[in-house]
Amino acid sequence: MTNYAALLKESGLKATFQRMNILEVIEKYGHMSVEDIYEEVIKVHPSLSLATIYKNIILMMEKGVLVEVPIAGKKSKYEISKVDHMHLICTECGEVEDRPCLDSTDKILHELIEQEHFKLKKRQINLYGVCEKCQMQEAS
Amino acid sequence: MTNYAALLKESGLKATFQRMNILEVIEKYGHMSVEDIYEEVIKVHPSLSLATIYKNIILMMEKGVLVEVPIAGKKSKYEISKVDHMHLICTECGEVEDRPCLDSTDKILHELIEQEHFKLKKRQINLYGVCEKCQMQEAS
DNA sequence: GTATTTGCAAATGATTTGCAGTGCT
DNA sequence: AGCACTGCAAATCATTTGCAAATAC
Asked: Topology of B1-82 in CATH?
């Protein structure tokens, strides 16, 4: 995805410079906290305000463009909506990586939910641990 | 579990009235935000301060007595540490319910992680949707 | 008795809001 | 032109901190 203007318009939002900046930065890094986004975005557009980021994150979540990734012990990060996946979250460096959801996991979860009378909307599978990079640093 | 005094001492913490109150309330309701805990706990112990709750939640998480359950769009809730399980989170009423993790899910995740050079510490499987109670209310 | 813990009040930090001005379409 | 959006500053809300008094052991 590169055409943020189209994505925004499809979602009923005006394609402002600020919004495109925010989306570009999130896409580039994958998962970003509000502060992360702010720090990156002002490199390109120094007058962009934090308030604008907050307002737009909320708006773009409502429109389904962004998704919140809440993380134990840290601030939430935000990602661009994409097909279902799991998160590997490093408790040392805070990095988040995506991995595809396995079909079998998928099937099992759906079966479970059917038995439950629970109307499933969204799954969030987060695996907390130490990433390869941080493991190597620990070893040294 | 009922013996909070023992649990606390095993964890190297003094068994104060305040801490036992906090644990009782979390156990009783299952999953509680800071505010939830505060509102319940002052019914029994009106002078207990919010600061004490914050300090103790942090302490008890460090000692492994409590676990944070971060939730998209809401404040984190806290639960007493227990065997691995999934959460069904109602996006309408905010209720969180536990369900056992399925063995097959378990095995799949562990295999995946071994391929990854990722040192897994903890899993968090959250299923967001609408609970039975809220579905019935919608219908009416 | 001593180290820990509590509760208060103040400090800090994060997020939200109102509004006047600006920019997309 | 008209409505939606931005940026600022102020307001609000959440969390943390410092410290004197109280409590567990």
From this structure: Arc Repressor Mutant, subunit A (1.10.10)
Pick from B25, B100, B23: nearest CA to B61? B23
Q: Tell me which residues from 55 to 84 on chain B have a beta carbon below 7 angstroms from nucleic acid strand D.
A: 55, 58, 75-76
Residue A10 has pLDDT above 80, yes or no: yes
- pLDDT average, residue stretch B73-87: 95
**Minimal CA separation from B66 to chain A, in Å:** 12
Domain B83-140 in CATH 3.40.50.170: no
Domain boundaries, chain A: 1-82, 83-140
Å: A81 CA to C5 C1'? 46
CA separation for the pair B30, B51 (Å, rounded) = 22
| A112 contacts chain B (CB < 8 A) | yes
pTM here is 0.94
- CA of B11, C1' of C7: distance in angstroms: 24
- At A82-110, the pLDDT tens digits run 999 999 999 999 999 999 887 777 777 77
